[in-house]
Specification:
Helix content is 37%, strand content 12%. With 245 residues, it is α/β, with parallel strands linked by helices. It has a five-stranded parallel β-sheet with strand order 1-5-4-2-3. α10 links the parallel β4 and β5. α5 crosses α7 (141-152). The termini are far apart. The chain binds zinc ion (ZN) (2 copies). Residues 48, 50-51, 53, 63-64, 66-67 line the site of one zinc ion.
Length: 245
């Protein structure tokens, strides 16, 4: 195969059934092979109305125990899937190397979620990387996902969601969140995000949809949401690919 030119190989690939991006077996029309598709745990009802955590059964209240005691500083949080080995691989492939080939699959799966969360004049804001990491990786995966999702999701003519990647910035590099406790994560992120003064007028009263790849404890989304609310935004919602349970 090595002697074949890239273009010839690309054409051969188009004639063969598509491959699962995670394991290279032949894929189904879901975009994954049967085994990987079974391993992807999509989050459906019943779930907490507020934070989207799956609930074991639909109870008298539609809120989980955590949201009843300390509701998050966001109006709604929704995740496509539970963070497990399959969703982790999807996200890793999306994040690193030439992972952009995962974009169409994620867009197809997440477009209905976006349609359900979007409202008029909403600003869709990917969680930014801090500058040093952005320069190293060359693109912000949350930004690429948000941009592709908006392009693919049908909405009203003029007043549908607007991709707004510059509404918040992340001036402080901050330590990696890996291995930190929930309280440490919250402290680590205090002041991590800023709304540039030039964006304050555009932000005023506007509903926001934050986009990120993984929600671990929620500390990152909470810090971004608090920063936006303090700067005068309307209600803040969030959508992630996967959430740690
Ligand atoms: Zn597979
Ligand atoms: Zn909840």
């Amino acid at each position: 195969m090595r002697s074949l030119g890239w273009a010839v190989r690309a054409r051969l690939d188009n004639l063969l059934p598509p491959r699962c991006p995670l394991c290279r077996r032949y894929s189904l029309d879901t975009g994954l092979c049967a085994a990987c598709w079974r391993g992807l745990v999509l989050i459906n009802a019943p779930m907490c109305d507020r934070c989207g955590r799956p609930l074991a059964y639909a109870g008298p209240s539609d809120l989980c125990a955590a949201c009843l005691t300390t509701p998050p500083p966001l109006e709604l949080i929704r995740a496509l899937a539970v963070y497990n080995d399959i969703s982790r691989q999807l996200i890793l492939q999306f994040k690193h190397g030439d992972g952009l080939h995962i974009t169409p699959l994620l867009v197809r799966l997440m477009s209905p979620l976006l349609a359900g969360l979007a409202s008029r004049h909403m600003l869709v804001v990917p969680i930014p990387l801090h500058r040093a990491r952005y320069l190293k990786r060359r693109y912000n995966q949350a930004g690429e996902l948000a941009r592709a999702l908006i392009r693919a999701t049908p909405h009203g003519v003029d007043d549908g969601p607007i991709f707004a990647p510059n509404i918040i910035t992340r001036p402080r590099p901050g330590r990696s969140q890996a291995g930190l406790s929930r309280q440490q994560r919250i402290r680590n992120l205090a002041g991590a995000f800023q709304v540039p003064p030039v964006e304050h007028a555009r932000l005023a009263g506007r509903p926001i949809l934050l986009i990120d790849d993984v929600m671990t404890t929620g500390a990152t989304l909470y810090a971004a949401a608090r920063c936006l609310s303090r700067a005068g935004s309307g209600p803040v919602r969030a959508m992630v690919v996967a959430r740690v349970m």
